[in-house]
């Protein structure tokens, strides 16, 4: 069940209150899950029960997405604001340096949290920030087209499309390699999440100049890329490996940009292996 927590974040405008929605499940070392732009915490539904068998899992709606409130007026949706805000969220929930796994925007935020030493391990699935300018423009244009499509379709049409494999492919084929596996109700919900995301425009605007160029030392890092990622092309994983040379680079065969639905067992194993390696280092 989704809950909310309110806390104060630091921002260029000074301390500001914010409220984040999250779902918490399981027991063990904490594991924070971060979704991509235009998505919501339910992106992790295919893997959350597997992960919760070993971890205290906290899946969050990022600020301005899902049912989380937008950031306070005038507060930028930048790495320098959102990553520390996620650290403040962990403090508000009584969690110290969780493991973190993120997809796309969430993967970029996970790496930034690792760079800032806010977490104990990082799993980044197709993280943003390793693109060329041409690749970034392509990804942003694709996202804007998806958003425009979600806004243009009336809800009855979305529901009707979601009931067929071809319709699910039309709605979500850009991000899933196997969209027919996605439940119809999930496709409806994530289409609405994309349509209604109050933080979408500001997050995209803030991402225009983002390049992740720093190493993430002192903790296990895994960077994983779907072989069928149509949004952030898999060659960006090679650049990520060069940027974070100590990272483990993993190929996710047959997976798209949001791999949790395409191969839940594989994605879960990648996340769990990264967390286990942190425990081995600590021992």
TrEMBL record:
Keywords: Hydrolase. Pfam families: Abhydrolase_1. Residues 30-260 form the AB hydrolase-1 domain. One of its GO terms (molecular function) is hydrolase activity. Coiled coil: none annotated. Transmembrane segments: none annotated. The keyword Lipid biosynthesis does not apply. This is Alpha/beta fold hydrolase. It comes from Streptomyces virginiae (Streptomyces cinnamonensis).
